[in-house]
Amino acid sequence: MKTKNLLLLQKITFILIIFQLCTSCMYAEPFGIRGNGVKATEKREVGNFSRLDVSAGFEVILTHGSQPEVVIEADDNLMRTIITKVEGKKLNIYVKGSVSPRSPMKAYITFVNLSEIELSGAVKLHSPELLDFDRLLLDLSGASAIEMETRIDALKADVSGASLMNLKGSANKADLECSGASNVKMVDFQVENMNLDLSGASSAEVWVTQNLKVDASGASKARYKGDPRITVDTSGASSVKKVD
């Protein structure tokens, strides 16, 4: 009899535990912390930085200035989840945990000197002004995008996933590596010497005046304007064509 009662008690306890778990799942927030729709603006204290790493779906508005500055715009109740910190001269901006914002998350960033920009997780970066760089390294992944007008001495870019790089301006030298379904639009960005490496279903439209070296594979496509000396190595269904 005692054994039957013990088994019955164990069954009831088990059922209660399952019920509590199901109830918790039913009322848990499926997308993390949901934004409350109350837009807030917060200035963050940051030290000097020369590299930038942003993730988690931010819109980044980039400007040049005499002092570094970061201003975050987002739902009021999500501010505590947004991390901005400088480590080893790199400014990192990301979200801690899972969130579901109702207001767009924006980061207004002012830099003094910048040599590297890394964007991941559907981050969109643009600038309202012409930006000058000596050397710039760009790393775009996870459907991120960058659109700006700039003058650069030497550009190196790695564009992957479904990312987009749209540049206007000029550079003396550019080394570009594009993979996945990435897209590069640089027909209004004049480059003297360029190395272009395309793979997957990536595509690039470029403007080169002196020397162009293209290595294309998969189903990638390269389109170029200008009259450079060109070296081409293609494989698969890739193609390289000159356009007006």
Distance between the termini: 92 Å
H/E topology pattern: HEEEEEEEEEEEEEEEEEEE
Kindly state the percentage of residues in helix.
10-25%
Number of helices: 1
Largest sheet, described in full? 17 strands, mixed
Strand % is over 45%
Shape: globular
Helix/strand class: mainly beta
Query: Quick check: average pLDDT?
Result: 91
CATH architecture of the largest domain: 3 Solenoid
- At the first level of CATH, what is the class of the largest domain? Mainly Beta
Oligomer: single chain
Q: What's the CATH topology label of the largest domain? A: Pectate Lyase C-like
Give the radius of gyration. 25 Å
Description:
There is one protein chain. The longest helix is centred in the first third of the chain and has 26 residues. About 10% of the residues have low confidence. The strands form 2 sheets. This protein has a 17-stranded mixed beta sheet that branches. The chain has a two-stranded parallel sheet with strand order 1-8. It is mainly β and 244 residues long. It folds into 2 domains: 87 residues, 3 Solenoid (Pectate Lyase C-like), CATH 2.160.20; 130 residues, Pectate Lyase C-like (3 Solenoid), CATH 2.160.20.120. 11% of the residues lie in helices and 56% in strands. The chain starts with a helix and ends with a strand.
